[in-house]
Amino acid sequence: MKLSTKHLLGIKDLTTEDIQLILSTATNFKDVLQRPVKKVPSLRDVTIVNLFYENSTRTRFSFELAEKRLSADTLNFAASNSSAAKGETLLDTVNNILSMKVDMVVMRHSASGAPHFLSKHIPAAIINAGDGINEHPTQALLDAFSMIEKFGSLKGLKVAIIGDIMHSRVALSNIYLLKKMGAEIMVAGPPTLIPKYITEALGVRVEYNVKNALQWCDVANVLRIQLERQNQPLFSSLREYNLAYGISRKLLESIGKEITIMHPGPINRGVELDSDVADGPSSIVLNQVENGVAVRMAVLYLLSGT
Description:
Elements: H1 16-33, E1 47-52, H2 58-69, E2 73-78, H3 90-98, E3 104-109, H4 114-119, E4 125-131, H5 137-151, E5 158-162, H6 169-180, E6 184-188, H7 198-202, E7 205-207, H8 210-216, E8 219-222, H9 238-245, H10 249-255, E9 260-262, H11 275-278, H12 285-304
Parallel strand pairs: 1-2, 1-3, 3-4, 5-6, 5-8, 6-7, 8-9
């Protein structure tokens, strides 16, 4: 089977069959990662460039490890120490890289739509590793993989996405994917951090009381406050945010049921999540990190055309 698209620009462009194919392929690659020899020759002679115009730790390392596990040749590009810092345009940068016969580009950029722009101008397969406040498709795929691993299916699962919905590409990709796969979705957080149009545009429930959201959901996918994307203060202080919307062990115990806790990272401990919740028995945060490698191996393999 093949994906219906040459690129992974966003979950919005994928069919349910595409999503199922990626997740089933990821299951096979996760089995590979449990073996003593974790490397397979699937992408031998395929050259991949990791083109990161924004800082990243988990996503960049996860893609790099996935590429190495598949035996691909890799180039790592960071804008801060490249000719981009001297004013070279995105298209010139990529064309120079492609002249070195690169097959695939994994790209993170602060501008929404940057991967889509590239996909129209160059022949290589493009994988969106996060574009502005638009999408982060592989994060949504690994989140889905982690939920299916825990619950068996996404159909009918109640998922609350809590925090800075306004500036989160993770939230948007998760909403697209969960809706396609039959889950129920609620977004929760301060009114200033939830887009006004979200119910009409995306068909999700909105809740401004975090305890109500937790009482409703099976899974809480908690997002960090993205201060770097905010042009003006949207709440009084991080301390006030923690008191009103932070998730503590005491709050979870008051709910009286088990709720699975997720977080795409990096965690602002003591703000959106207390440490005893992030590291507690209900948290699958580290499972998400582990599953990210298998999911990204699946995406790279399926888009490579091998």
